[in-house]
Write a structure and sequence with these properties.
Layout (H helix, E strand, L loop, with lengths): L11 H4 L10 E5 L7 H8 L4 E6 L2 H13 L5 E5 L15 E7 L8 H10 L1 E12 L16 H9 L3 E8 L4 E8 L1
Parallel strand pairs: 1-2, 1-4, 2-3, 4-5
Antiparallel strand pairs: 5-7, 6-7
Length: about 180
Amino acid sequence: MIVKSGGRFVIPDVVATHFHLREGDLVADFGAGSGFFLKVLASAVGASGRVYACEIQRGLVEKLGDIARQQGLSNVHPLWCDLEEPNGIKIGTGELDAAILVNTLFMMENKDAAIEEMSRTIRSGGKFFVVDWTESFAGMGPDGAHVIYAQQATDLMESHGFVFERDFPAGDHHYGLAFRKV
């Protein structure tokens, strides 16, 4: 998406190339929102894979289901989830090969509880990708006081059993971080 000021924002088709997903992977989009990443994730994991579109807003869960049906994404499964509650994600322990968290970390009230619950669903050796705002920009994203900087996100993830692997470009106003679960 291009904005008038010339800044480039998160482009799912570009950012997802850094996820290195494979055919058959089970992946969750935590805080899937309006389904910005659904199509690219569904394509990456193929017919034998599965994408869980996890969202706390029930209206958005229904919308995600409609989008999946309209676009023929039969491997997308919308789920109502509360990321900040123990067992609030209706995915089995250690089930996921990968997870993404895009523009959601800054919104969480209890980040430790959320990372712990998301971690529960990822298998040992599984991947976790965090994309979030580097700044408050032109009234978009979080206000300055709520920005979670890349180092803060890294510290948070490492404190919950993830190892930082690399960063990757995610747009002019976002960072991308790749972690692996120990």
